[in-house]
């Protein structure tokens, strides 16, 4: 087995393998040219894959940043091992988008749609954090002019855009409900049903219709295995996080703690 195949051998999904190959290609270019390279924004699953691969390369170092401490979407800067991570800066720009949304219900998807409607690709946009009447957006610096000068409306509401320091980002505390439950197995449809109180058939249908993401990847298999630490996202309803196993009941069911985040 070649060294590249060995490094990628733990990856099963086609999209994960392709990402791994891209990361190895970038690392090779950094080594050959003795320079730095920064990825586009990666979701948490992709970031984890990139970090695991780069950690195996002796002559390479890396740093992942998303503009704030709670960042989900991050860019990874890859650089020669002799450089120190604390001396590296991941190129990021942050913006405030404000408008009078008193009579219009807007959410994450509306702001994302307005940005991609300008021709900005999703991979160039990081987290979008909504706080009261303001959306705080992290993006690549190359998108700065487009966002500042051409974003005029979100869901037909006129908006003002200004640049901000990324360390000024404010978070609204999410509601988190702790659920103690038991399931016959750790299938996705069983966890989803327990977390939201839906029927098993409704949960299965939602999965098969492509409305559910498991660890940021759309999952259409109701029987997909869910592990402790996994995150399930349901559009318009929130997220479920499997926090821990609490043992086995007398009847043989698996006792879990699940957090519902809305």
Overall description:
With 262 residues, this protein is of the alpha+beta class. It folds into 3 domains: 3-87, Ribosomal Protein S8, Chain: A, domain 1; 93-168, Alpha-Beta Plaits (2-Layer Sandwich), CATH 3.30.70.330; 176-261, Roll (Structural Genomics Hypothetical 15.5 Kd Protein In mrcA-pckA Intergenic Region, Chain A). The chain has 7 helices and 14 strands. It has helices at residues 3-8, 14-33, 44-54, 108-116, 144-150, 188-196, 200-208; strands at 37-38, 60-65, 75-80, 93-99, 125-131, 134-139, 153-154, 157-164, 176-183, 212-214, 217-218, 231-234, 238-248, 254-261. Strands 9-14-13-12-10-11 form a 6-stranded antiparallel beta sheet, with helices on one face. Helix 2 crosses helix 3 (44-54) and helix 6 packs across helix 7. The longest helix is centred in the N-terminal third of the chain and has 20 residues, at 14-33. The protein starts with a helix and ends with a strand. The mean pLDDT is 95.
* Main sheet: strands, sense, barrel: 6 strands, antiparallel
Principal-axes geometry comes out as globular
The neighbouring-strand order within the major sheet is 9-14-13-12-10-11
For this structure, the CATH topology of the largest domain is Structural Genomics Hypothetical 15.5 Kd Protein In mrcA-pckA Intergenic Region, Chain A
Q: Helices and strands: which structural class?
A: alpha+beta
Topology pattern, helix = H, strand = E: HHEHEEEHEEHEEEHHEEEEE
Q: How many domains in all? A: 3
Quick one: CATH class of the largest domain? Answer: Alpha Beta
Which band does the percent of strand residues land in?
A: 25-35%
As a whole number of angstroms, the C-alpha radius of gyration is 21 Å
């Amino acid at each position: 087995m070649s060294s590249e195949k060995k490094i990628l051998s733990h990856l099963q999904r086609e999209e994960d393998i392709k990402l791994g190959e891209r990361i190895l290609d970038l690392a090779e270019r950094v080594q050959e040219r003795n320079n730095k390279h920064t990825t586009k924004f990666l979701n948490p699953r992709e970031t984890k894959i990139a970090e695991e691969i780069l950690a195996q390369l002796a002559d390479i170092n890396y740093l992942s940043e998303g503009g704030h401490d709670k960042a989900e979407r991050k860019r990874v800067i890859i650089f020669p091992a002799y450089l120190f991570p604390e001396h590296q800066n991941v190129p990021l720009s942050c913006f405030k988008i404000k408008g009078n949304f008193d009579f219009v219900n807007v959410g994450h998807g509306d702001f994302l749609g307005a940005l991609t409607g300008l021709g900005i690709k999703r991979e160039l946009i990081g987290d979008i954090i909504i706080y009261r009447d303001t959306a705080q957006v992290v993006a690549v610096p190359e998108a700065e002019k487009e966002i500042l000068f051409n974003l005029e409306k979100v869901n037909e509401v006129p908006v003002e855009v200004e640049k901000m320091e990324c360390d000024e980002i404010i978070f609204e505390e999410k509601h988190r409900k702790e659920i103690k439950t038991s399931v016959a197995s750790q299938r996705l449809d069983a966890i989803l049903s327990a977390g939201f109180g839906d029927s098993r058939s409704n949960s299965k249908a939602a999965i098969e219709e492509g409305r559910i993401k498991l660890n940021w990847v759309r999952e259409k298999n109701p029987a997909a295995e869910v592990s402790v630490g996994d995150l399930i996202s349901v559009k318009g309803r929130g997220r479920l996080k499997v926090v821990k196993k609490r043992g086995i009941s007398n009847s043989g069911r698996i006792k879990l703690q699940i957090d519902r985040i809305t």
